[in-house]
Amino acid sequence: MAFPASALRSGIVYCSLGSGQLLFDWELLERLTAEGVRLRALHLIDKDYGGPKRRDSAIRAQRLFAGWFADQGEQLGPCVVRSFLSASEFQAWARDRGEPAHVLLDCDAVGARRKIDVAAFREAALRPGGVCLVLSNPAKRTAIMKRREASGLKTLTQEVYRRGSWRNRASVSCSRTRSRRRRRESSDGRRRAS
């Protein structure tokens, strides 16, 4: 999966759901900019940025983050940083403004996902060909792409972290421990015997 050269030159739009204090976002964007990717806009979604759930540490992290990425030099121009308190607020804004993301990071945003139709949010938040990177607990990572030709989302890969390494989800047992598998196998054997 690659973005068109024109998008890399004009800058990508990045969105983060549950961005909190922005460590994962900073690491990912630092890597992208080191590879020569220009940032056109950053959209940060988290309840910690205002309202009754506001956290001063998240506000401070957001200010530092915006300052870090805002100035990309005269040749590239400024990077716009916007904040939203909810996924539905961003979804409505993206629909009205027409600025969906090339990259959407969903970093363990369980609370935000409970309140929305996740597939509809991802479709609204992503442009055709855009990619959603999902990091979940227990350790699972998923890459999802918004289809270019047709509507809908396509899961590109899903991996889980087991026994010290990342493994394809399809190749890993659903139970987490050997003892659980043994108990399940023995109970399955007893059922077959009866």
Number of strands: 8
Q: Given the structure, what is the number of helices?
A: 7
Return the string of H and E elements.
Answer: HEHEHEHEHHEEEEH
The average pLDDT value, as a whole number, equals 82
Query: Looking at the structure, what is the overall shape?
Result: globular
Can you list the strand order of the major beta sheet? 3-2-1-4-5-6-7-8
As residue ranges, the low-confidence spans are: none
Largest sheet: 8 strands, mixed
Beginning-to-end CA distance, first to last residue: 51 Å
Percent of residues in helical segments?
A: 25-40%
The oligomerization state is single chain
In words, what does this structure look like?
With 194 residues, the protein is an alpha/beta fold. The chain is 38% helix and 29% strand. The protein has 7 helices and 8 strands, in the order H-E-H-E-H-E-H-E-H-H-E-E-E-E-H. The protein has helices at residues 5-10, 23-34, 56-70, 87-97, 110-114, 118-125, 178-193, and strands at 12-17, 39-45, 80-84, 101-107, 126-136, 140-146, 153-162, 165-168. The chain has an 8-stranded mixed β-sheet with strand order 3-2-1-4-5-6-7-8, sandwiched between helices. The longest helix has 16 residues, at 178-193. It starts with a helix and ends with a helix.
